[in-house]
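Invent a record, attention on tokens:
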Amino acid sequence: MFAPSQRTKSLIYEQALSHVYEFDYAGLAVVHLTRKTPCRDGSFRDEPRASAMITRCGNVAIRPHFTYLGPFAKNGLAAFQAESGASGYIDISGSIIIETKFSYCGDFGDKAFAIVAVKNDQYAVRSANENKYGVIDDKGIVVIEPEHAFIESPDENGISKIKAGPYGHSPTKGLINMKTGRVIAEPIYGEIYSRPGSKTYIVKRYDGKYGLIDDSGRMLFEPQFDEISSFDKRYGIYVSKVGEKYGLINDSGQILFAAKLDEIGGFTDNGLAYVRLGDKYGLIDYRGNLVMKIKYGGRYSFWGQKLWRKLER
């Protein structure tokens, strides 16, 4: 349990530690400070005051001169926000390294790029808080101009979704590689979906057609399907839909089975799934091969490599 030292207590005056965060790459922890403010009814409320950084010994490393501080990243930079609302980055000595010209600064973490935002004066009348988001490197150089409506935090592949479009309209969506700072899919799609354990992304055009793109930006399938769903990360396969028929595709860009089935069940650990065409059932494997012809009159379940129930003709 962390306990602040007397030195910490003396340096933060009468303010209270409202939260102590985990220690970062520099061995420092961000602390948020509050001050008791009297209310009309005689009670007190905690009012956010400032952020500081402390060492593992409880000593103050960065004094509470900022309204917000983020953790130090691997590159030795931490985001901050000044009382004016402007944001930038400091080093471990507290010196400003990237000047306060942003309205928002995200953390670098272990990446070479960070998400930043600037106020969009074009929409200042409509919304004083309207931001446009971009990306900078650890030298403060803008690598993606702040022209996007939003940039999400990166996923497990280091890929972020970006949104573009005028204020008050449904944004179009794209993808950016936060490891390289490169846009791998221009923001032209209505929706983009990711699946845990996959390096591919489902893209949906505004006409309702679905396609598939990988994390390098290679288009595996142009938007042509009415649906892409049910990703199985064990085998890297999706269920595709064209009209009312279903098929199988994989995350390498191959059509394993054309969309002509009425139903495809979930795959088991033995790599098999039941399929249905009309009122007849069969078996398909994860490579798209029919291992039992579609001619049986019931749905069948399997356990390991053995039939759990007998097939009924």
